[in-house]
Write a structure and sequence with these properties.
disordered C terminus, 7 helices, Reverse transcriptase zinc-binding domain-containing protein, globular, mainly alpha, 3 strands, 2 domains
Length: 180
């Protein structure tokens, strides 16, 4: 599938205007573009010695494949959704008689990679409707649980005051610049 400058990649689109689905897009895009920060990324770009081992399971390097498919601490989240993803892409690929080697990591990160020609418009539409929402949901759930387990506070934007942090108890820590 070829993309043109100024054209939105299907990963950044949603089928419906569901606010929950839209909120999952930034994490999804970070995974797809390789800008999601894992321990291996920190070690590569940090002057200090950073341990590349996954801080959740302490079993292996925290790579993208480990985070999405292998971390044992996230298995209970991944199992059901990944089963649905596997069933869905198997049905879609059989429907369109795609005889390519399937890489599960590629399916989760960018299922559109299998839409090789413009003749796969129907496949792209089916991925939009059936597969992409599952992949987006899996990635977001894994991200959310990772942040929760590592006790990383999510940042939200406040139009008047800039960035504010939300603690584990969902109380707002006010910026000294805020007068609200």
């Amino acid at each position: 599938m070829s993309y043109k400058i100024g054209q939105c990649h299907p990963i950044a689109r949603t089928v419906d205007a569901n606010i929950r689905d839209i909120a999952k897009i930034p994490v999804r895009l970070k995974i797809a573009t390789g800008t999601y920060i894992l321990q291996t990324n920190r070690a590569d770009f940090n002057q200090n010695k950073i341990d590349v081992v996954c801080m959740l399971c302490n079993c292996s390097e925290e790579t993208l494949a480990h985070f999405l498919l292998g971390c044992t601490r996230l298995e209970y989240i991944r199992k059901y959704i990944l089963e649905k993803i596997t069933n869905t892409f198997s049905l879609l690929f059989a429907k369109y008689s795609l005889s390519v080697e399937i890489d599960l990591l590629t399916v989760v990160v960018n299922p559109y990679a299998y839409c090789i020609t413009s003749a796969h418009i129907e496949l792209t539409n089916d991925i939009n409707i059936h597969l992409e929402p599952l992949c987006r949901h899996l990635i977001y759930r894994l991200h959310h649980k990772r942040y929760e387990l590592l006790n990383i506070m999510p940042k939200t934007k406040n139009r008047k005051c800039g960035i504010k942090h939300i603690s584990n108890f969902y109380s707002v820590v006010r910026s000294p610049l805020c007068n609200i």
